[in-house]
Design goal:
Blueprint (H helix, E strand, L loop, with lengths): L3 H14 L5 E4 L2 H7 L7 E14 L5 E14 L8 H21 L7 E12 H4 L1 E15 L9
Parallel strand pairs: 1-2
Antiparallel strand pairs: 2-3, 3-5, 4-5
């Protein structure tokens, strides 16, 4: 099972490897709002939300761990007449690209990402950003292992 930091680092790596995405961050909506004015776009933001966590099998030894996130893909018009429709079209694809990176990407993994739904973002963050927020679930295999139990 990957740590929370390792999961976020994977998302950051996927965003950094994408040719169109210029910035990535993770955190609360307050952080997203504060950063939205001082970042490069297109911008991807990962916000953790309520999650099932570790769901163990019948004997409590193994199972799956799921983390739920809101994945924002945002951009701002480069020109005063640039179409928000085109921005929303592009940012929707960026979300699918990031999911594909996880599910079909460069390394074999036991983890995967499932999209649960999308919501358009129109004129957010001081009326300048457009795009989508997708609710996604990251799932990986988990084993309760006493051998790694920290003790004195």
């Amino acid at each position: 099972m990957k740590t929370y930091k390792q999961v976020v680092d994977l998302f950051e790596s996927a965003a950094n490897n994408h040719i169109a995405i210029k910035a990535f961050d993770e955190g609360s909506l307050d952080y997203l709002d504060a950063r939205s004015q001082n970042t490069k776009y297109p911008y991807v933001f990962l916000r953790p939300v309520a999650s099932p966590g570790l769901v163990q099998d019948f004997n409590g030894v193994s199972g799956q761990r799921s983390l739920t996130f809101e994945l924002f893909a945002l951009d701002v018009p480069a020109l005063s007449n640039q179409s928000p429709r085109q921005i929303k079209s592009n940012t929707e694809i960026y979300i699918y690209d990031l999911i594909s990176y996880f599910n079909n990407g460069p390394t074999q993994r036991t983890d995967y990402v499932v999209l649960q739904g999308l919501l358009p973002v129109d004129e957010a963050f001081n009326d300048r950003a457009y795009g989508w927020v997708g609710t996604i679930t990251y799932t990986d295999e988990a084993v309760s292992n006493y051998c790694t139990y920290p003790q004195l």
